[in-house]
Amino acid sequence: MRSSKSKPARVAGVLAALALASVGASAGCGGGVGGGGVGGGGDGPLAGVEFTVGSKEFPEQVILGQIAILALENAGADVTDETGIEGTANVRRALDSGEIDMYWEYTGTGWSTILQHEVTDAPSDTQELYEAVAKEDREKNQVFWLDPAPLNNTYAIATTQAKAQELGVQSLSDYAELASKSPEQASLCAANEFLVRPDGLQLLEKAYGLKLPGGAVSEMDLNIIHTRIPKSDPCNFGEVFATDGQIVTNNLTVLEDDKSAFVKYNLAMTIRGDAYNEHKQALDQVFNPIAKQLTDETMQQLNAKVGEGELEEDVAEGFLKDKGLID
What we know:
The protein has 15 helices and eleven strands. It has helices at residues 7-20, 59-74, 88-97, 107-114, 126-141, 161-167, 172-181, 192-196, 201-208, 222-228, 246-249, 273-278, 280-293, 296-307, 312-322, and strands at 38-40, 50-54, 78-82, 102-106, 143-145, 155-160, 188-190, 217-219, 237-241, 252-254, 267-272. α2 links the parallel β2 and β3. It is globular and about 65 Å long. The two termini are 16 Å apart.
């Protein structure tokens, strides 16, 4: 049974190890020294192989990290749990240094944050973006991106199902048309970052010809937008991320991005070269079937369960068993 420790301790452990270890100090698989619990082992295509799995700190990433851990253990691997590392920069640094062997990443983040391209220059086609990121990261950094999931954790605009029907708005083109005719009905709640980033509201305005007067836009904390939309207090529409659990718990509907304006953030497992090259076939067999099952709607449901108090590991196990992906 894998031992557990608090998320802050895992973060501190990995960051402390990174401060002390030189880049490349870990030569083989399972080189993580962050002090996370170790579990697994047994029969399977990865029997006796050691891996360290990381994740970022927010619930969706911790769920995904636990999915990876349980799937690897089911394949016989011994797994060290270093999920919950704070921020993209730190978890990627842990991967590059060999402190972790793998974590789930998003293509848009790979393009902009990791590979340092302008986010607005990202290919609009999902597959094209994935292939560009996977190729460059493999060639420059020896990091392999496995098959992408349908899950696309990008910006989105949401409203209630009732309001969408009342106003006849199902897509962002519909929303832009509503804004031109009745801007007060198109009122939008959004966080500051969405309002100022070039891939946020500015991108919508450019792609859809959206024009909202200042009085129709209300800036507020991202975490409360989902609760304000159902009350139209003060907005009928709001910024969300496409896989938010609050979409489910607040009975919201996401407007279709019918011009594919928002940058894509499809999910894929990323694995450092030393770990992947030694066990390529087995790792593909473990993770590619999982990726196929991870859709926006599925992730919304999983995130909602954690939001309602379930543990990430329990949610991950339920998903894998429901999909027949582990015994």
